[in-house]
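Narrative of accomplishments. A recurring question from our advisory board has been how the design workflow behaves on a single, concrete structure rather than in aggregate. To address it, we present the structure tokens for one chain from the evaluation set, followed by the sequence designed for it. No filtering or post-editing was applied between the two.
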């Protein structure tokens, strides 16, 4: 019964993360033009900056989901931390793959965002309810390392981006902030 309830909450979390990510896209550019917002929200239209859409919106949603039902599942924390790694990687992979077939367009980007969030949530759900034990001190430490590592990586590479395609915003012709 709890698995079924978790499945429903995960479906709601998928939609919530998508809506929050949509808002997150405009956080820096339209609302908070400060260094803290720049570290956690996209500052330009580069693929790398858009990978941030899959981090803090998901963390916020996962924290709420944890408080509602996640505490009942020992694998919840690690499973959702892993999804934080998977979603940006998957988005970048699929973004470049679809560009081989069709030119970049807003509708495809929006669809890709929702698909990636849904896949990330599905993977987190499957890992959470799997029979494999993914809890304990090592998994908690790994979860913290994933979250903190991604936070630092996004912040550092926003302010000090390498000069390569993934960090380049073709609209502003700039890298990073």
């Amino acid at each position: 019964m709890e698995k079924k309830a978790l499945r429903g909450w995960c479906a709601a979390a998928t939609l919530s993360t998508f809506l929050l990510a949509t808002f997150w896209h405009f956080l820096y550019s339209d609302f908070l033009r400060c260094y803290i917002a720049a570290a956690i929200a996209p500052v330009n239209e580069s693929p790398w900056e858009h990978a941030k859409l899959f981090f803090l919106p998901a963390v916020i949603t996962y924290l709420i989901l944890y408080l509602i039902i996640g505490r009942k599942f020992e694998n919840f924390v690690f499973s959702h931390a892993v999804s934080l790694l998977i979603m940006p990687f998957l988005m970048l992979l699929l973004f470049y793959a679809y560009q081989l077939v069709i030119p970049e367009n807003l509708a495809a980007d929006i669809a890709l965002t929702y698909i990636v969030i849904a896949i990330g949530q599905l993977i987190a759900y499957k890992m959470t309810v799997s029979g494999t034990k993914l809890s304990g001190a090592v998994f908690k430490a790994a979860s913290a390392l994933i979250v903190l590592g991604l936070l630092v990586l996004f912040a550092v590479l926003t302010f000090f981006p390498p000069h390569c395609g993934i960090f380049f915003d073709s609209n502003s012709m700039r890298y990073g902030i």
